[in-house]
UniProtKB/TrEMBL annotation:
Family matches, as Pfam families: TFIIB, Zn_Ribbon_TF
Molecular functions per Gene Ontology: TBP-class protein binding; zinc ion binding
Coiled coil start-end: 261-297
This protein's record includes keyword Glycosyltransferase: no
Residues annotated as domain TFIIB-type: 7-38
Protein's name in the database: Transcription initiation factor IIB
GO cellular component assignments: transcription preinitiation complex
CDD domains found in the cross-reference section: CYCLIN_TFIIB_archaea_like_rpt2
GO biological process: transcription preinitiation complex assembly
Family, per entry: Belongs to the TFIIB family.
InterPro entries in alphabetical order: Cyclin-like_dom (IPR013763), Cyclin-like_sf (IPR036915), TFIIB (IPR000812), TFIIB_CS (IPR023486), TFIIB_cyclin (IPR013150), Znf_TFIIB (IPR013137)
Amino acid sequence: MVYTESEHRVCPKCGSTNLERDEKHGELVCRDCGTVVDYLIDYGPEWRAFNADQRAQRERTGAPISERHPHKLGDTIIDDRDTRGRRLVDWRFRRLKRWDRWISNDPVSRNIRSAVELIERVCSQANIPRSIVDEAIRIYRKAVEKDLVRGRSIENTAAAALFMACKKRKHPRTIKEIAKLFGITPKDINRTHRVLLRHLNERMPAPDPKQYLSRFATELGVSEDVEMLAREILEKAEKKGLTVSRNPAGLAGAALYLAGLLKAKEYIEEYREKMKEAESEEEKEKLERELNEKLRTCRRTQPEVAKISGVTEVTIRNRYKELAEELGLEVPDPTKIDVPA
């Protein structure tokens, strides 16, 4: 059952917002007084299928419309066989196919086809989802319709469209990563990106540094505890307005670096107490090995974090100091925490 209207409903009888979906009966019910506020609408099929063959037989619709479909690209598919599978050899049919090839080979269609091939190839190399590919193609076609491609290279416009699609679909990719994929400079993408934003009227969500955390943490090889602490730091920073007008990738890298320092400090203090209670040298050596193993999963240097985040070491240093100062965190001196080899 899918409820299609706004989630912020109130009971017309008692004014309560404590509503519950009754999926079994298809009703939206007030939990305080029991009033049926509305009925849920099921947009699914009215039939059931227990295997792939039954589903294929009972389906009455085809695949969803894709931005990569030939009809969307301005092409027409003309088969050279009739309904019985016999090859058509009539000269009028050959002339029709030739005219269609000439008509569909106009500059606009060629431009869109080249951009689609380029976007698909780049996204395939970078493992970018197909939904973002479709969104990027849609934005590029919209730019062509608005005549924004004239005077700009296909690479610049396609890269800007892909960057906008990643932002819109909340798939974190930095502008430097996109520029590297297309073999152009970030300055070129920025210039075209501003033009598209100004003329296409596309609504872009506010950048969220937390979207970069999982990927950066995986590439840096830090533990889940460090990632969770970095997420908490960014959530507190967002409440204080520290993320406004800041590079989200730089903030995510700084939060991971800061979380690594705090976790390293916590582990060192914890194992220092355990070593005091240790009775033998073997036990102390074992505790020291455990400490070194934990430090390897949390502590990373500024150059390592800067390289993954796509920013400079100065940005990481300034951002993590700013976060620590504004949030009142006591950060140890990084030079006094040795990272085991």
